[in-house]
Amino acid sequence: MFHAYFMIHGNYAQEVRAVRNVASVENLMRKLQVLLDQWTQNSEINTTNMEHDKAPMESHGATMQEQVEVENNRAQPDTKMKWHFGERMTHTESYWEGLKEQFEKGYENTGRTISMVRDIEGVLTQLPASHRDKLQARFSGLCVEAEAIMDNVMDRMKIKCGKTPQFKCLLL
Predict the structure, then answer these.
(1) Are 38 and 145 in contact (CB under 8 A)?
(2) Which residues, including other chains, have CB under 8 Å from residue 58's CB and lie 6 or more apart?
(3) Which of 5, 13, 49, 127 sits between 20 and 30 A of 84, alpha carbons compared?
(4) Which uninterrupted H or E stretch holds 164?
């Protein structure tokens, strides 16, 4: 009788623990989905900004060329160099600051995503098979989505890092 009592209550305690772990995993998966959705939205915005960044640089170069030629005809040599160099340095600083910010956000989001995936995986492995099977498909889908987003971000950063500012020295 005494042994049966502990078996019943032991099974009940295991089931309560499993239910709590299921709730924990579901909560973590919701948080991961929110993070991935935000990251996707920010990636789309950054891609749009990257496309817009290309056009102004190209058109800016032509306009800048014309302005420098006009200024070359009027200004003193040292004034021409300071004016052109100052504007180009401002643009270059802005470019690198934006790149640094994107890199830091990508690094932070990647770390958070990997940490959440590991946390979910850790709790999933502790669940009884009946509960784990119900959650595994959703978890696998989140992992695929996370991997695709991180690959996309890395590809965009490679493109961005490979993009060299058009730094022309028109005074030579």
Answers:
(1) no
(2) 166
(3) 49
(4) none
